[in-house]
Amino acid sequence: MSFSLNKSYKVLLLLVIFIVIIGFWNPNALLDGLQRGSLYSLIALPLALVLGILGVLNLAHGEFLTVGLYFIFMLNNRFNLDPLVAIIPTVIFLLILGAIIYWLTIKRVVKEGHLSQLLLTFGISLILIETINIFWTSMARNTYTSYSYASMEVGGFRFGTYELLYILIAVLVLVGLQLFLKKTRLGQATFAVGQNPKGAKIVGINVNYVYLFVFSVAVAILGIVAGAMLPRTAIFPEVGSPFTLKSFALAAMAGMGNLNGILFAGVTLGIGEAVINSIPNYGGWSDIVFFGVLIIVIISRSYRGAR
Amino acid sequence: MPILQANNILRKFGGLVAVNDLSFSMEKGEILGIIGPNGAGKTTVINLMAGTLGVNKGTIEFKDEDITKNAAYIRNRKGIARTFQIVRPLENFTAIENIMVGALFGKGDKLNEARSSAQNICNLLNIKNVNKHVDELTVLELKKVELGRALAADPEVLFLDEIMAGLTSDETWELIDIVKSLQKKDIAISVVEHIMKVVKELTDRVIVLNKGQIIAQGPYEEVSENKEVIAAYLGEEE
Amino acid sequence: MRKNLIILLLLIIALTLPLYTGVYILHIFSSILIFLALSLSWDMMLRTGQLSFGTAGFFGLGAYASVLIVVKMGFNPILSLLIGAIFSGLIAFILGFIVLRLREIYFAITTLALTHVFSVIIRNFSDFTGGASGTILANAIFEGDPVKIYYLILIVAVLVIIISEVFKRSRIHYAINAIRNDEITAKSSGINVFKYLLFVFVVTSAIQGLVGAVYAHQYAFVNPESTFSLNFLLLPIAMALVGGIYSTNGPIIGALLLGLISEYLKLIMPYGHLIVYGLIIVFVVLFLPRGIYSTIHNKLLKSNIIGGDKNANTASK
Description:
- The complex is a heterotrimer of chains A (307), B (238) and C (317).
- With 307 residues, chain A is mainly α.
- Chain A has one domain (8-299): Orthogonal Bundle (ABC transporter involved in vitamin B12 uptake, BtuC), CATH 1.10.3470.
- Chain A is built from 12 helices and 2 strands; from the N terminus they run αααααββααααααα.
- A two-stranded antiparallel ribbon of chain A has the order 1-2.
- In chain A, a hairpin with a 2-residue loop joins β1 (151-154) and β2.
- The radius of gyration of chain A is 19 Å and the shape is globular.
- Chain B has 238 residues and is an alpha/beta fold.
- Chain B has a domain at 1-76 and 189-238: 3-Layer(aba) Sandwich (Rossmann fold), CATH 3.40.50.300.
- Chain B has helices at residues 42-50, 72-78, 95-107, 111-125, 139-152, 169-183, 196-202, 220-223, 227-237; strands spanning 4-13, 16-26, 31-35, 57-62, 65-66, 80-82, 157-161, 188-192, 205-210, 213-218.
- The termini of chain B are far apart.
- Chain C has 317 residues and is mostly helical.
- Chain C has 16 helices and 2 strands.
- Chain C has a two-stranded antiparallel ribbon with strand order 1-2.
- The two termini of chain C are 25 Å apart.
- Chains in contact: A-C, B-C.
- Chains A and C meet through α4, α5, α10 and α12 of A and α5, α12 and α14 of C.
């Protein structure tokens, strides 16, 4: 696990060059890609956190996002609460939900093999999707806010302003996580547990408590994402599902535990997707970017590991 | 003529050279002891000879055939078998099924042949609880199952990695007798051992490793007087 | 002896089912048998220690291959089912050289990602595959005759059961069980680990392709969304877990049990009846890691009610 920025400068430089080239060639795709990439990174961060600290790949990750989206939708629909304001109750709700699910289920498989972990979280994801199906059916739903399609014009180039929020939130959440891990006692304990759970236990850290905390916070972060997403996203029970694999793709690409890397990886893949998406008649291929990269990264790592 | 020969083999782990330019050979019907302080590279030598690990440099010849590039399973089929320092039984099998695996794949038996070969080996090794699952076996029985699986492949060369470790004195003697009986079948045996009493009793010849290189070889009595060997072992005592 | 009687009895019931049941019941059992075959094939791969999430992918490939070869080249529908199996097996063979070097979580995730890649590729070669809206067959197989379709599916399911039993009773069982247990021991005992993994991967993927082909011809259409649906991955896993993994009986019992329960729930709960699968997966993982069949079987074994069945015994470990 490395949370350091030291090695990131080269990557950062490459990323900047990449962005500048795309920016000149296709500014629309660049902006679209930055927004997508920020959103992907934002969703991937908590998955990577759980993967890095607990060693559990949470296959229900995307479904927790779905739950957050529906919770905000409900608050908006019933109580006319603005989605961005509804983030606060949603984060609390997800924090509690995450804690309950950790305590009842995940806790029992943290020390078990990957098979149990994958199957358990697969089962949880199914329960979450189907619960939403029961309450809201499979119909797609929309939320209207006055600001979600606001746009501005700079030098004859017109673009939507709302999605810039994704970039802002992504940076804020990343910085917040970094500060938490480095500056607070709980954060340092979390870091220690991620490095070496047995050692952490010996020096008196309550590992189980740290796991509970990390898992709940990871789920709760999705509440922030959900609030930002809802105004621009039609929701249906499987809306969050694709993000699980995409998040894992980013975590794998960044290297386990490298939180900054996730932002770089997310933005790179986001732009890659947006560029392909902007090619007429071939836009549908953009879906392959993540899975292709995921497969290539995993396989090239395995070859390097074998040597 | 040696049956198995290592020529200048070298193996690195990252920057650490575990086995450095090592050459030795084994003869039919001979028991060769491989001794040396902790971390001398004894188990790595077995891993390299059995193909569990690949060499970075050098060649390995078995009956005048270059087997350096052969995978572990091919070497096993050709006649090189091994046991593991920490026993690695197949946990969802019974004792006899563990031994059958060696007969099925190492020797190439059919299913019914494998069962009778395995039963013969159980008799030879005096394993009584043949149908017990491995998690119900005693340490001695596990060691015997491990040895039995290796023997079932009908090997010409056998590597035994600290097979006596963790046994009582009586049990050790039982295994020593078994290994000696294998020697009579013309198998070339190589034992890695920490217990010097066993080495003295069992081996015809020893090689002493330190830091991945041979520092002495010859009969145990001779080697145990060697100053360099004593120094290497003393170095470990600190 | 008693075991053989039970098998004979079940086979007779299965064979005579169309004589005394209506189309609706027949349809339910056809669907259960489809999932039974998928569940067994998933379990057969798991016996090597590799958790595959690619079941839906190879199912979909087989479905598309068999439908397209009928639509585009006028192939005989029955023969096209074999094409579905061969195509999935072939793709598995090629991909096997790459993905079978991976283990654990990485194998699982890569096979899941491959499922998505298959569906994206098929969606985008729309000239050939019909794109997102899919391709429709002029006619379902056997003109949609439910009895004939039931027998076809029954044959496939029995074939898969036989393959699973052959796996359990031959040297394959010893090889893959050893690989799952300890790859290093397996290698130093003369087992060609990669060869066996590839063999099982190809066979199970071909089964999944065959089942996909049959399913597509039953409903006379394929489309990326429904043909590559993750239900063809999740439900078989749940079934195998419920019955008990690493055995032939486990997935069979699981498929029957879950198939009937979910069919009943579908009637009273049109949306979200699949929740029962999620609840069962979670429950079984947490409380019955050996599955229902193996748990009961082991209890009976311990109390000596039934004799020592070696297969079941090793299977439950």
